[in-house]
Amino acid sequence: MSTARSVSSGPGGERVLEDTARAGQPESGFRDNQQWVGQGTAFMGDVYGDAHFHAAAATEEVVKPRLREGPYPADEVSGKLSGFVEPPSHATCRKALDRRILLLRAEDGTGASTAAFALLAERHGTAGITGLDPMEDPARWRPKDARGYLLLGLSQDAADSLGGVVLRGLAELLRQAGAHLVVTVGREVGLPAETCAWQVVHVPPPPYDVAVNRLRTMAGAGELTGEQLSTALGHLASREFADHLRAHPLPGDSVELAEELREVAASGEPAVTVLERLRLGSDSAARAALDKARHSADAVSLIAAVALLHRRDRTVIERFAAELRPLLHERAGVGPAADQPERSDVLGPSLEDRLTAVGAELLPPESGTARRYRYPVRPVAFSGRHRPETLLRRLWLEYEGMPELLWRALEALPAQPGVDMAAGRAIGRVLRHATGPNALRQLAPFAASDRRWQRRLVAFALGEVAQHTGLRSAVQEQLRQWSRSRSVSIRCTVAETCAGSYGLARPTTALGLLDAVLDGPEGDAERNLRTAVSFALRVLLSEEPNHVRVLGKVGEWLASEHGTLRQALAVDVIGEMVRATPPRPGGSGPGRVSLADVLGDHPQQAVPLVALALDTPATHDVVAEGLIAIEQDPRMRCRAAFTPFLAALSGAARGRRGFTRFMLRRHRSRAAAPSERTAS
Description:
Elements: E1 5-9, E2 15-19, E3 70-71, H1 74-80, H2 90-97, E4 101-106, H3 112-124, E5 129-131, E6 148-152, H4 156-160, H5 164-177, E7 180-186, E8 199-201, H6 207-220, H7 226-236, H8 239-247, H9 251-267, H10 272-280, H11 283-293, H12 297-308, H13 314-332, H14 351-357, E9 360-362, E10 366-369, E11 374-377, E12 380-382, H15 387-398, H16 402-412, H17 419-431, H18 444-447, H19 452-465, H20 472-483, H21 488-498, H22 501-505, H23 507-517, H24 526-540, H25 547-558, H26 565-579, H27 595-601, H28 603-615, H29 617-632, H30 634-639, H31 642-653, H32 657-679
Parallel strand pairs: 4-7, 4-8, 5-6, 6-7
Antiparallel strand pairs: 1-2, 3-5, 9-12, 10-11
Helix pairs in contact: 6-7, 6-9, 7-9, 9-10, 11-15, 12-13, 12-15, 13-16, 15-17, 17-19, 19-21, 20-21, 20-23, 21-23, 21-24, 23-24, 24-26, 25-26, 25-28, 26-29, 27-28, 28-29, 28-31, 28-32
Region (Disordered): 1-33
Protein name: HEAT repeat domain-containing protein
InterPro entries: ARM-like
């Protein structure tokens, strides 16, 4: 079936793609306990860990952020500190932090952020660390709780405002709150001279110690046997590996070396393959590979396909390469025959031979999952840990016109499971190295697409870019501009971005953006926007520290004018909470956030929200029935601490019509219960 598509211009000249073949079909929406999804998979309930939902058009995976603005989960901090080696400067940092503030000067990649987590975890535990916005000005910031606060990457503007008087005043506020603050400062950022007493220069730990400690940690976790650990440590002590560590002294390099040694020790491969794989990920190896392939459109298209869609199925790789190949011929001004040998070869080289020629390989078969069936997958990958990233970065940034060709080949792809995630994250890692004020604007055409997998691709890309401390403000400004766009598709992309690592890293900002996207014109794609915002809210609710913020926003939206999209979204969220039930003891996996969870965990927020929901016609019946069901179920009644909650609700809502109707309904239900039992 052919699909007619038209292209129109959106605000700022963005392309807005319209799929005329889908006109009249139901678009994505959320009503009662169902979602009609024109494209993608409806997401409801909590996400615990990384969640994968593959559908015909989009991948809904919630990628956990590496850096956050807000509380860090304890398990994430523990993971960051696994195998931690104290750097030589650690004792000096401890002493400096006794004054409540530490300005930790360091170069990128030297492990300063991990050292900062370790210092704060010593004082406040792994559950007591809160990240701050890199754009935060410490001179104006005030601590709220007895926690460890971490600001990664101080800006020059904020640094200029610091001085001895400011730091002494802030230190006193931290002392009164029982808190500590660690700020990492890049070497390129200048600090006033009077801040010297708070500064410590971070010295990275010895690379050999980092690698040894990481291997021992792996053995302690059962990833290596005692014999395999001895083999790996023996390799590490050899001259070749010592030379490698001297040439690559950063902690991250040592960790990667240890992980490669683990693979070799477990598989029995020769140790020399470790260094070879690490070499393949270097910039010089990427340059050599592209120079070798530069006269073959087939080779360049395969390199680009595997680099952009790493570990995707062979059919996806072949399709992308086939789309890119004629574009490369067009770019070179030659016809496809230029790639053909003089002697006709009807079959041509096999895919396996073509992959081998560019340093890639078919991996062992795996299983993929669609909605109701499983199917075999043959992933394609490069050897070399960083080879996909370095090859794609060089293709994208060093060769004029290549980004446009790669975008055109992606645009021509049909929807495939995982393409949006793989390509989006790969492009995001490339854009972290892009320069100029317009680096993110190349995402606009896909952000304006009517195809959800393309909008999800942009969301994954922005999530990756925002993990770089120096680029967070650029991503935030781009999303702020898009949130005010007249294009519903662009505003959907903003919501999709909030439903991922970007939103989980900065939930307050995400909720503000979700509020903003609902202010624009609704248009024909309103259901898509409704689904995207609903998805983002549920992702934010997947982490308990966000519950208070989300519940507050739901209350604001519920109080909106009747018939607005805001109120409709609040009704959806509340209805979903009422219909959810907590997991039963011994059940497999956690359940959704239920009304009983909200009453028991957040009574201060639950009382005004429930009172308002009882006063709102669209939610009165479902909430009233939900409260009655909780009271009648001993397990849910205990979970919700229902008796004190009802007393608090009675005090707050007495005399309000919705509460009075609920109490009459509750009385009738309690009166009917004995007669029903007698009749049975």
